[in-house]
Design a protein that fits this description.
It comes from Pararhodobacter zhoushanensis. The protein is an alpha/beta fold. About 50% of the residues lie in helices and about 10% in strands. It has 12 helices and 5 strands. Strand 4, helix 6 and strand 5 form a beta-alpha-beta unit.
């Protein structure tokens, strides 16, 4: 039995506790989950650099998960395109039981050892891809089989687990482990384990985007101004980063077509074509494009 399945003696009889004490205990476990995630700091840094190196060459982020872990993986993948303008076809979440299992549980899907390898084969996996297996216990057959198939092809394999004894951690190239231990409700890994997984996935994908140049001075400079609110945010961002007024920022955005080009135009006194060429030469990294 995985440590995530154990019953915590401290919470025996919790159903009879006063509600104030119950609420305090629930919140306390969430803080413990975040604390547990910090133990993966060294592995997180290693994973960010290794993944960014592959993705810079055109690889994809591919997540594998079942149940709660799978849903958290789907969420992380889904948030990359709107946050960083990361191509949706390069952020893929494979869920045990298929897309429908995100909303409705598919019993027994996590036990399949053929579904994930078949799905990866259909994606024509390559050695440039980064495959992230997410499983609280680190024993889920679906995830382990998928990670093994990815490793055989030469893709970078990462694991996000909550049990130090997890087989998945030993099988991945880099293991991110947050040892959250027994849950307040035995086996309910949507609690501490899920929170710690969300923390690690957030930090991993955000760190990768920063390393790839999708962030400049703490701003989402890859954001696409696709509606009125985002357009206003883009203009304000350009003005703030360049010290220009909003009129100049608006004009540069219209001419350059995106935030990074507009910033380069204003700070380097270039036209849109020259600013674009400068960014292309640095792999789209604004900080590098602005250097002499």
């Amino acid at each position: 039995m995985s440590s995530t399945e154990h019953a915590a003696a401290r919470f025996a009889g919790i159903e009879d506790w006063p509600t104030a004490d119950l609420a305090s205990a629930l919140l306390e476990t969430q803080l413990a989950a975040v604390s547990a995630a910090t133990s993966a700091q060294a592995a997180l840094a290693q994973a960010i650099d290794a993944a960014a190196e592959r993705l810079a060459q055109g690889g994809r982020l591919i997540y594998l998960g079942a149940g709660t872990s799978g849903r958290l993986a789907v969420l992380d993948a889904a948030e990359l395109p709107p946050t960083f303008n990361w191509p949706a076809e390069r952020a893929i979440a494979l869920m045990a039981g298929g897309p429908g299992a995100v909303v409705n549980a598919v019993e027994g899907a996590e036990d399949s050892v053929t579904e994930a390898p078949a799905a990866l084969k259909a994606l024509t996996l390559t050695a440039l891809d980064v495959v992230i297996g997410v499983a609280a216990s680190g024993r889920t057959p679906y995830v382990r089989a998928g990670l093994a198939a990815a490793k055989a092809i030469g893709a970078l394999t990462l694991s996000v687990t909550n049990a130090p004894e997890a087989p998945l951690a030993a099988e991945a190239d880099i293991a991110l482990t947050a040892a959250t231990g027994a849950e307040i409700i035995a086996g309910s890994t949507r609690m501490k384990a899920g929170t710690a997984q969300k923390v690690l996935l957030n930090c991993l994908s955000t760190g990768i985007m920063i390393r790839l140049g999708y962030v400049y001075r703490g701003r989402m400079v890859e954001m696409r101004p696709t509606n009125v609110k985002l357009h206003a945010r883009a203009v304000a961002m350009i003005a703030d980063l360049t010290g220009e007024n909003t009129e100049a920022a608006e004009k540069a955005l219209q001419a350059g077509g995106d935030i990074k080009t507009a910033v380069a135009m204003l700070l380097l006194t270039l036209d849109a074509k020259a600013a674009t060429a400068r960014l292309t030469a640095t792999g789209g990294k604004l900080s590098a494009a602005l250097k002499d």
